[in-house]
Amino acid sequence: MDDNKKNNDTEKRLEKLKEAYTKRLTSEFKRLHAINDKLLSGNDDHETLEALHAGLHTIAGAAGTFGFPSLGEAARHFERQVANRLSQAEQQASLPNDWIKALESAHNKDSLSANQSTTTIQQPVMEGAPVIGLVERDSILAKYAQSQFARFGFQVHWVKDANELNQLTSHALDLMLVDHHAIQNDTPDTNLADLWKIKLRDFKCPIFFIGAEESYKARLQALRAGGSGYYTKPLDMATLASKFAYMLAHNDAEPGRVMIIDQDASLVSQCQSVLENANMSIEVVPNPEHIFECISEFNPEVIIIGVWLSEVTGAELATLLAQTEHWAHLPIIFLSRDPNADLRRQSLLIDGDAVLEVPVDKELLVSLCQRRVQRLRAFNRTQHQDSLTGLLKHASIKDALQKQWQLAQRRLQVFSVVMLDIDHFKSVNDTYGHAIGDQVIAAIGTLIRQHFRNTDKLGRYGGEEFALVLPDCDMHQAEKLVNQLREDFAAVKFKANDTPFSCTLSAGIADNQRFPAETGESLLALADQALYRAKHDGRNCVVQAVITS
């Protein structure tokens, strides 16, 4: 199927979703008019107000997602007023008589705006893709979330409410997104946290709650229910996908490497057992004289050193490490059997991160090591990775390209170089601001990491430009992969002040099979020339480098 036909099919599906939501809004307004008639006749009992709150809550949660931002904001405003009435926080407060007209006015304003489309295509997901369990009452919103997360390489299993949670137990979930009101309607808000905690007790993955309310109460309920976070509807799928991808990538990291240098065999054995049970890799060095040989071979991320050793102090060992540039940033934890305050102070002053007293607190030992491993890895990432995208920095991707070219020369291995650029990115910054522009950059960084292999070298070349080095991949294979990335990026919906918009990208490709005499730097230049032709040809396309006479 060619790109034009794919785009036409996409537009047709988008129109169907838009029509479905518009029809549902018509039904919602009919119900709200019926409730308004009751209110005007003086019937403002608890049941009527509950029905009004539910109707406004439904619109507030979904309208912004489907291109009705003004309606969503108006519904949220009136929903809060009704919630105050129901809680009797403002007994004398009442809705303005023209609230229904205000909603209709907001709806009309959105309808007159430029026609915005929303993606609902169900994308095939890669084998081994991260799995999200979604609990959401709104079927249209759930389908939208499924399609958008699929663009970022996630697989989403959806159930409507807490009563269907058992359907998710057969899936190995990496995380859950839960509408905090997707539980029996007669449950008082004060019991929501306890009920969710019971309902979700068998799920061991991180759980994030979602809802239309941006309030202290909603966030506290989510926290007490065991939530790792709370996100407000309408959901910014691109930002969420970036956060989740980053979180899961670092949760799946290899075990931390801890080196122990102490001459108390029983103490070392105890620490080793505790840390190995916490899934950490341990290297024991009984003789401090061998520290540099062992450290070079094991490459530890944390070193545990006894304050007193037979012929050297822990502080002296720490100083030796600090004087060696490659190991100067290693976290050090001292083990102390001596309550001597001066000695403890000296250990901390000489590059020690912490002092643990013997007998060792097992939980504290594990926590200290895990946090220092995370901190060191974060530091190392800042040296080589772009903080916004998680991709290699300019110098690192150029270094990776040179190494790949040298490897290909020795092994006669094919590889491709890709240069890609976000189309009209300056207008994104000018129209929506640099903060939104950064969200777009972060989103494409996530997409790139999700679409390509761990063996591929992926970098942010500068600004909105990216460079990819793809081993064992010729230009034709690379073109297919980059085109899939291009289509998925174009389908992602970003939001700025509840206004949805999308972006496209262009790319150029060169490989060492068509250009065997070129260096890595020359291949990069050829890919850049092909990118320039893609821009000249109308953008939103992928162009292969060609041989010129």
From TrEMBL:
The modification 4-aspartylphosphate is found at residue 179. Residues 13-117 form the HPt domain. Residues 131-248, 257-373 form the Response regulatory domain. Its cofactor is Mg(2+). Residues 413-547 form the GGDEF domain. This is diguanylate cyclase. One of its GO terms (biological process) is phosphorelay signal transduction system. Its EC number is 2.7.7.65. Coiled coil: none annotated. One of its GO terms (cellular component) is plasma membrane. SUPFAM superfamilies: CheY-like (SSF52172), Histidine-containing phosphotransfer domain, HPT domain (SSF47226), Nucleotide cyclase (SSF55073). It holds the Pfam family GGDEF. Keywords: Nucleotidyltransferase, Phosphoprotein, Transferase, Two-component regulatory system. The modification Phosphohistidine is found at residue 57. One of its GO terms (molecular function) is protein kinase activity. It comes from the Bacteria. It catalyses: 2 GTP = 3',3'-c-di-GMP + 2 diphosphate.
